[in-house]
Specification:
The protein has 352 residues and is α/β, with parallel strands linked by helices. It is 29% helix and 25% strand. It has eight helices and 13 strands. Strands 1-7-6-4-5 form a five-stranded mixed sheet, with helices on both faces. The protein is globular, with a radius of gyration of 20 Å. The chain starts with a strand and ends with a strand.
């Protein structure tokens, strides 16, 4: 028995934020001193490194669970299932519902419980819970759902990844330009054919790497002394990812029994275009093989980094034939992979 994706859905917020949005921002360094470069140079450098031209923000009246609900409804409709037959709703996020203009994270009740309520599911034995696993949270939710299905505990699961990172960024930190909002979801069902999840892998590096991504004070120590925001050590994350993610991807692919030449697509967390390209290059170097053309779809240039939402949202776009040059056909082998706060890494190989 395997677990198979039978429905996909996503929600791309309507608020488009171009790099010009940051033209009047006051960017500071860690000591609170204004950066010497002008903002046009700062945003230009960011675009060259990350590939991000624009990103999407949620509307002021939306929170993360609202975005997750829309993606979930789309996945349920796409699958054609009765939501009352769901055994689990797993919601991956990192910061809960943070209302616009506030600084408080709201996670009680869980976002999964909120989505179940809004879906009007009466089945009390449909279990709803959240996963906090950094950017790899959605993949981890899929791995957990797969375990439930293979063990016979569940037959149908809804796995959501949604985030509103725009609500937890320090506007004085240039790294804030990377982050975005969005949501994606899938329905996973038990299947007895050869399709579905073929292998998976998860790892947590915490001994030295725990604080590569963390919550820290604003660089503007005068106006925001007690509020904390998402912070990262970009160089350490880049170096960590290039060392460990390709190795994890290789181990996962090798465990699946498929060869590198059988791989049709790599759907990787949209964190940083240059970093993702470097990860995939190193992955193929481990096999002494060239990187095939169009192996890795990228949408970070228009959507930014929406954390747990990037992979399921991108998958929905591909399966809905919204990306030129990127299709997934029956029997295609796809490798999913992510890295993020923890520091966590995970991956799974899927046969469509």
């Amino acid at each position: 028995m395997t677990s198979k994706i039978t429905g996909v859905g996503n929600y791309i917020p309507s608020e488009t934020i171009t790099n010009l949005f940051f033209d009047k921002h006051l960017f500071l360094n860690e000591e609170g001193i204004a950066l010497k470069e002008n903002n046009a140079s700062i945003t230009s450098k960011l675009q060259k490194i990350t590939g991000i031209e624009e990103r999407r923000y949620a509307s002021n009246n939306q929170v993360t669970s609202d975005l997750g609900l829309i993606a979930a409804q789309a996945a349920i409709e796409n699958s054609g299932i009765d939501p009352e037959t769901l055994d689990y709703i797993i919601f991956a996020h990192n910061f809960g519902d943070v209302r616009f203009g506030t600084i408080q994270s709201d996670t009680v009740p869980s976002l999964a419980s909120r989505v179940k309520h809004l879906l009007k599911i009466k089945n009390n034995f449909c279990v709803a819970y959240d996963v906090l696993f950094g950017c790899p949270g959605w993949i981890e939710g899929v791995i957990q759902a797969n375990a439930f299905i293979k063990s016979g505990i569940a037959k149908k699961c809804l796995v959501i990844g949604a985030e509103t990172l725009s609500r937890v960024v320090d506007i004085h930190d240039r790294d804030s330009m990377i982050y975005a909002d969005g949501a994606g979801a899938v329905i996973l069902e038990a299947a007895d054919d050869e399709s579905g999840i073929q292998s998976h892998l998860s790892a947590s590096y915490t001994l030295k790497e725990k604080d590569f991504l963390y919550f820290g004070k604003s660089y503007n120590n005068e106006s925001c002394p007690d509020t904390k925001y998402i912070k990262m050590d970009g160089r350490k994350i880049y170096e960590f990812a290039l060392i460990h993610v390709p190795e994890a991807m290789k181990k996962c692919l090798d465990n699946s029994g498929y060869s590198i030449n059988q791989l049709n697509k790599i759907i990787i967390h949209q964190a940083n275009e240059k970093m993702d390209e470097a990860i995939v290059n190193r992955f193929y170097q481990l096999y002494d093989s060239p990187v095939p053309e169009h192996i890795m779809p990228m949408v970070i240039n228009k959507l930014g980094n929406s954390s747990v939402a990037t992979i399921p949202s991108l998958l929905a776009m591909i399966l809905k034939d919204e990306l030129h040059q990127h299709q997934i056909e029956k029997n295609d082998i796809v490798l999913f992979a992510s890295v993020g706060a923890g520091m966590n890494i995970n991956a799974f190989v899927y046969k469509f």
